[in-house]
Amino acid sequence: MAELVAGKSSFPIEGILFDKDGTLLDFVSMWGTWSCHLLQAFSQRLTERQGNWGGADLYALWGIALDRNGLAIGYDRNGPLAMGTIGELISILASQGYASGLSWADAKRMAYECKQLADAAMERERPVKPMAGVLSFLEACRQRNLRLAVVTADETEMALRHLEWLNIRHYFHEVIGTDQVEKGKPFPDMVELACRKLNLDCSQVAVIGDTNGDMMMAHAARAAVGIGIIDTAQTDGKRLLEAADVIVTSYDELSFGRS
């Protein structure tokens, strides 16, 4: 058993469950880029079909902030892009197509076609970056023989691909996507499934994530601790991660004591 030190507290644990996006990899570089590809394609196709459709700000609906050049620079940690599933995001887009006058079937098909275009662009570009300090922290976990898993709102196949892009797949004993459970975050299903596969009790694991949904999931599963990680630029971290037991601004604030 290892002693995980976070802030002024320490927690005896046998494993750690990591959220993926915004926790292992930089969220904006990955999902901001993907979203721009998808939403630009959808807006263009919808305009071609329906003329000047005058619909909602798709970026705002997904919880994305853009700079003057139309590039993603931030996201709402409690918004759909950060906490939702791919299926939920597609439904948001389809609802805009339906509201513009398309049939629901046409709107869904258009949204999925644009997703495929965005996925193909990401495969070509692979704009993924690790979170600062995460590589050394994962290595420290490996040296202490901790059981590690990923629990993500992403689908498993895509999550595996992203971990391979970062060359960190080998650190994780299990990768649990939302497609493997009946209910995703903030429900406890993914933590419970990961712990069953790791042969651990939920009370023996820490959960690290960047959204309140991650922290609510940790509490629902009765994990040892829910640790929220948030950028130093975010001054309202306690509000955004109100369910967190501990909030840190980087992996440098996590360490291991004597086991």
3D structure, described in words:
- One of its GO terms (biological process) is DNA repair.
- It holds the Pfam family Hydrolase.
- InterPro entries: HAD-like_hydrolase_sf, HAD-like_sf, HAD-SF_hydro_IA, HAD_sf.
- This is HAD family phosphatase.
- One of its GO terms (molecular function) is phosphoglycolate phosphatase activity.
- This protein is an alpha/beta fold.
- It has two domains: 2-26 and 129-257, 3-Layer(aba) Sandwich (Rossmann fold), CATH 3.40.50.1000; 28-125, no CATH class.
- The chain is 44% helix and 19% strand.
- The protein has ten helices and eleven strands.
- The strands form three sheets. A six-stranded parallel sheet has the order 7-6-3-8-9-10, sandwiched between helices.
- α9 (212-220) links the parallel β8 (205-209) and β9 (225-229).
- The protein is elongated and about 65 Å long.
Summarize this entry quickly.
This protein is an alpha/beta fold. The chain has 10 helices and 11 strands. The protein starts with a strand and ends with a strand.
Shape: elongated
Q: Classify the helix fraction into a percent range.
A: 40-55%
Strand order of the largest sheet: 7-6-3-8-9-10
Cα(first) to Cα(last) distance is 6 Å
Order of helix and strand elements from N to C terminus: EEEHHEEHHHHEHEHEHEHEE
Give the integer mean of the pLDDT values: 91
Contiguous uncertain segments of 5+ residues: none
As a percent range, the share of strand residues is 15-25%
Total DSSP helices? 10
State the name of the first-level CATH class of the largest domain: Alpha Beta
- The CATH architecture classification of the largest domain is 3-Layer(aba) Sandwich
What do we call the CATH homologous superfamily of the largest domain?
Answer: HAD superfamily/HAD-like
DSSP summary, beta strand count? 11
Rg (CA only): 19 Å
The tally of structural domains comes to 2
CATH topology of the largest domain: Rossmann fold
How does the major sheet shape up? 6 strands, parallel
